[in-house]
Each structure stands twice: as C-alpha cells, then as structure tokens.
Design brief:
Elements: H1 3-9, H2 12-20, H3 24-56, H4 60-85, H5 89-114, H6 121-153
Helix pairs in contact: 3-4, 4-5
C-alpha cells in the first residue's frame, strides 16, 4: 500500500479542516447517510453469504461463522493496524482487548437474557480466570513500563 495513502487516511488535521466548515445539520445528514450505506452493505454481505452457502452446499452456520465474523473483525483490525502504524500502540492494544471483551460480553450476555444457555461451569470458570489473569498481566506490564520510563526521565 502506498505510504502517502496511509498518511492521507490517518491525517486528523485534514479531516478536521474538512469537517470544521460544515454546519451541524450537514454533519447529521452525513452521519445518517453513512449509517444507511453501512446497513445496506451489511444486507448485501448477508445476501452474498446466504447465496455462497446455497451454492457450495455448506451449512449456513459455517459460512456465517467465518465470513461474517471476518467482516465484523476487519474494521477493528484496520483501526489497530493504523494506530500502531501512526505510533499509538496503546490505542491498538486497547482496541483489540476492548473489542474482545465487549464482543464476548455483549454476545454472551444478550444470549443469556434471551434464552437459557447450558453452560459447563468448569470451562466457564477456567476461561474466566484466564481472562482475568491476562488482563492483570497487561495492566502490570503497562505499569512496569511507565515506572521504567519515569526513571529514565529523571
């Protein structure tokens, strides 16, 4: 990918200068248009996935689990890659960890609200402790790095 294109995409000053001259109603119209386009694109993607499942003979759940999950993960991956490329690794890490936590919590939480979910308590307990341990290690690593940077500045 061209270096200038990446700079143009990530240039906040360019975006801010473009948006600064627009009125609030125009910005709201742009937001509504973007939401409509995003919704229409999602509809097209689902129609394509269903057609792909029909043509290949694979179960819809298999196609959905792979293609749709890829489609929902790519925007988050793009933000993380751009953040790391632009020298903001904290945003990249936070986006990755936060999206996993939010996706897992929202999907599992909404599923539990809508229906009784059979759960193996051993697996749930083990997975929960692994997530808590991973989050604790991330916080400890970040804190240690901040302390090291403070010592260097002195």
């Amino acid at each position: 990918m061209d270096h200038n294109l990446l700079q143009w995409i990530g240039d906040e000053a360019l975006l801010q200068s473009f948006v600064a001259g627009l009125s609030t109603p125009v910005l709201l119209v742009i937001i509504v248009v973007c939401i409509v386009l995003l919704s229409k694109g999602a509809d097209w993607m689902i129609d394509g996935v269903v057609d792909l499942a029909r043509r290949t003979g694979l179960p819809k759940i298999v196609i959905g689990a792979t293609v749709v999950s890829l489609g929902t993960t790519l925007p988050e991956a793009f933000v993380s890659v751009m953040a790391a490329y632009m020298g903001n690794p904290g945003l990249a890490l936070g986006n990755g960890v936060g999206s996993i936590i939010a996706d897992t919590g929202l999907i599992f939480g909404l599923t539990c609200l809508l229906a009784a979910v059979p759960v193996n308590r051993y697996i749930l307990n083990r997975t929960g402790w692994v997530q808590v341990g991973a989050a604790t290690l991330l916080v400890a690593k970040k804190k240690k790095k901040k302390q090291r940077n403070k010592k260097r500045k002195k």
